[in-house]
Amino acid sequence: MSAPAKLPEMVPGAFFASENPEDPLSAAGADLRRSQYAIFGEYAKHDIFMGSRDLDAEVTSVSVSTGLTPRDVKEGIFAYMTLQQLPRLRALQDAVQRLDIRRLCVIEKTLNRMGNDADPEHYAEIDNLLVGLFTAESPNQQLPTPYMITLKLNQMLATLDCSVAFDREKKKKRGESPPGFGHLDFHPDPSGVGLAGLTFSADNVSMSAVRASITATARKHGLSDSDVAFKLLTGRIAAELPATIFAYAPKTPDGTLDPTKPVFLPGFGWSGAVGTEMFHSFNISVMDLEGAAAHTVAGYVAPDKVKAYVRGRDGTCIYPGCDREAWSCQLDHRIPYDEGGQTNADNLFCLCQHHHNMKTDRLAFYIPDPVTGEIIWLFSDGTYARVDPNGIIADQITPTNPKWSRSLDDVKRLKRENARFFAKCHKVLDEFEEDFDYQGCLNKLLELEEEFGLRFPFHPEPPPRYEPPPEI
């Protein structure tokens, strides 16, 4: 067991104005900080096993017990978790509860730029700096403001790791990383036959919205997707709005959409951090799939919620070896409707046109296992094959394989990784604005994007093409 962190000796008579024993407002503020400590103090401990505690379950539990909003709870948890790497500051907070959540959040946000593999000696230097900053040296001294804390930490980070010491004012001018940012490239014709091209890349939620708009407009005008895309880009037709995006999104315990968790978009996969933010910025109409599994209708055509449930359950065509996406498959009544088969999820399965025809022609038949979801195919030659379910509902959102479950440690690592990536990229842009080495800047940004697996939205504009002076 390590020895307790040693606190600095107090200067006689020195105290912060926020701890003035003669001021009733100071006493009220101290009560507030003690309450915050009582709620979140345990998250500063090293011995708490964060890897096994799910973030969303933890936030819900604390929110219900305290009446705090989930956002405030999440801020408090990660603010106090920062103290795990700052033992002297943690000991000071344990002793006097001097820091409020706002100041701890500022420390957390700044230190996240150090990433997940920071040198422990760097943390020790920062720990000493912060303890000194929060130790009074004179009577009625003002407690350091969040701005002052950020300034001091940035100055130290610049000496410890210059790769993340970007210019804050320049970053403000560039703006924050917007949800749904895209990147557009035009390609000249390298072959000389008169063809050119363009590439547009963006988060998968934005691309899903683009596809939905093109598809809806193409359907209205009876055109192909490529013709519609060209006419939309050249202003010859208007987009058909609103276009509909289909996605599978998790809910909070109170039944609302959970904005912190990724969503699944048919044809594009799981959303990343940017795509998730983009998705929840839309005006979303929700189709609740709870109850769809047991919903039965009298007619042949299944309602939309049952179709969505079945496609989410199957994922692809359920024929062995077929990977045709469920969202482009037909819904087959396993027991034909005209033979008494019901229109419900238990009797509906996704088959592509080809394999639907095989089943209709009685070349094959399938039997689902209602417990495991496994499907047994029986063929006319006496052989059989097993198929495991591929869908997100059957395979991802279960107690044994919770796609959306994230521990506190998982999220802390992700926050640090993102903060370090963006800090490094902004530092690269700072250098570009000094030396204007466009290709060098672009190469560094691409290397960082490759290293972190993230996309930086503020690539520099290429310089104008050099034109030699005309000959005289």
Features:
472 residues, mainly alpha, 3-stranded antiparallel sheet, two-stranded antiparallel sheet, 16 helices, 11 strands
List the helices and strands and how they pair.
Blueprint: H1 24-40, H2 55-66, H3 70-81, H4 87-96, H5 101-111, H6 120-133, H7 146-160, H8 168-174, E1 182-187, E2 197-202, H9 204-221, H10 225-233, E3 264-265, E4 269-270, H11 273-281, H12 304-314, E5 330-333, E6 348-351, H13 353-360, E7 364-368, E8 375-379, E9 384-387, H14 392-395, E10 397-398, E11 401-402, H15 408-435, H16 438-452
Antiparallel strand pairs: 1-2, 3-4, 5-6, 7-8, 8-9, 10-11
Question: What does this protein look like?
Answer:
The chain is mostly helical. It has 16 helices and eleven strands. A three-stranded antiparallel sheet has the order 7-8-9. Helix 6 runs antiparallel to helix 7 (146-160) and helix 15 runs antiparallel to helix 16. The longest helix has 28 residues, at 408-435. 26% of the residues are buried.
Short account of what is shown:
The chain has 472 residues and is mainly alpha-helical.
The biggest sheet amounts to: 3 strands, antiparallel
How would you classify the quaternary structure?
Answer: single chain
DSSP strand count: 11
Secondary-structure element pattern, one letter each: HHHHHHHHEEHHEEHHEEHEEEHEEHH
Kindly estimate the percentage of residues that lie in beta strands according to DSSP: 5-15%
Q: Helix share of residues?
A: 40-55%
Radius of gyration: 29 Å
Q: Would you tell me the structural class of the helices and strands?
A: mainly alpha
Q: What is the 3D shape?
A: globular
Average pLDDT, rounded to a whole number, is: 82
Low-pLDDT residue intervals, each spanning 5 or more residues = 395-404
